[in-house]
Amino acid sequence: MLDRVEIEVKAGDGGDGVISFRREKFVPFGGPDGGDGGGGGDVVITADPSVDSLRLLGRRRFYRAADGEGGKGKGKHGKKGENLILTVPVGTVVSHKTQIGSDALIADLKQPGQQVVVAKGGKGGLGNTHFASSTNQAPRIAQDGESGEENSIILEMRLIADVGIIGYPNVGKSTLLAAASAAKPKIAGYPFTTREPILGVAEVGQRSFVLAEIPGLIDGAHLGRGLGHDFLHHVLRTKILIHLVDGSSLSPAEDMIRVNAELSLFDSALARKPQLVVVNKIDLPEVQARLAEIEGVFSGAGITAHFISAVTREGVSELMAEAMKLLSQATAEAEAGERIPQKVFRPQPRGITPRVRKEGSTFIIVAPEVERIVARTDVTSPEVRWQLKRQFARLGVSKALEKAGIKPGDRVRCGNLEWDW
Question: Is domain 1-157 in CATH 3.40.50.720, yes or no?
Fold first, then answer.
């Protein structure tokens, strides 16, 4: 099972606006009719119940959405680029690769059909019709399309299960899963028989819950040893844990403590999950002889241990009933503690105010909207330079330059264009 991939995504670039004028017979002054460029396509990740692995996405490193088409004459706007939709299993966590901490999370896709935009397409550039005015009826300026967003993201699939079975390798987790549900995990007498988490449905009366076997943990699992990080994150989704220990071990209680330490070192939230401590293999004579001793050790630590034999299924039905009871209690407490976040409306600014900074003797204009106009402008014509200067005044660039202390003759740079003021 491939349950973690890192990919690069790139949204589509916006199409360029066009400079065009009406060319019709008997219409000598037709005016501008340049259309706008289409917006670039978004990269969208959606949870699909029919997908059970990230294997297909892991085959490629880079994914890109379609670019928007450029505008055309006669007022024709370019077509918007198609969105790129990547399907992932339900339960996939999407996060930024380069960020750390809580801000790294982009979305937790827990519900079928839930989706998130991980890279937004660039805006289409404006055609020259947008720059016409009463004093500039033949604008020869247009706007480039905006570049689409780029992102490095991590997709991590986490099983959505109610109850997780944890414990050291070879304690009988697969046997218990097979005894409690219709799942058919591989069962053998050697460690790490199970190479990937396996789900099963356990029924208790008219109710049921999803049971997940988490492959064996060893000392140092929180550091990635053994199957370590590959499967520890699957435990995060479970509501309660069945902690299975081997009754034939020299110290079942010590085994439980060491596994819990690994969980706590990986994520402190795991140590707070409700647990049912279960001693397995009571069908063995050597375990039968030590039952009282083992129970006394757990009782002395304030822990109520359950005793089962996954092979003979002795005590399994009672254990599942106890798990259902604890699961119902944990679910009720979680729902009571949940807070519905208030909807916060954050109006977006209509535009970014131009900024000016000085590098040496050159004034640098920082204004994406203006840079996209400059990129599409041929400044060799005096008429075009005049029109561009009017746009600077309209967009607040001239005012920002004056505030920064510019004087006639100073050098100005915007995007790739540099000139004397």
Answer: no
